[in-house]
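Key result, reporting period 2: structure in, sequence out.
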């Protein structure tokens, strides 16, 4: 027996199936390799996102709320001063 054991396999008759399975294998391997290599970065991004949601968001809400209350208070004071001038 000379050459490869696969000499008698022809891809001419099964070209579509060969290409489809070959592409499926390539895409599957690419997906798994991407997940394997990028998982540490994904974990760090997720931790940063959670910390932002749990720590920064409430602080920003409190800061925005205090500014809003200050604006309302200033508007109320200016309205009262305007009423005093009209009397």
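The corresponding designed sequence is given below.
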């Amino acid at each position: 027996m000379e050459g490869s054991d696969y000499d008698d396999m022809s891809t001419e008759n099964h070209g579509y199936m060969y290409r489809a399975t070959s592409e499926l294998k390539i895409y599957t391997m690419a997906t798994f390799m991407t997940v394997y290599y990028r998982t540490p970065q994904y974990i760090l991004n997720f931790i940063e996102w959670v910390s932002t949601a749990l720590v920064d968001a409430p602080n920003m809400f409190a800061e925005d709320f205090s500014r809003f209350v200050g604006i309302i208070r200033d508007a109320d004071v200016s309205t009262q001063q305007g009423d005093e001038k009209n009397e």
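The longest helix spans residues 15-86. The chain has a mean pLDDT of 81. This case is discussed further under Risks and Mitigation.
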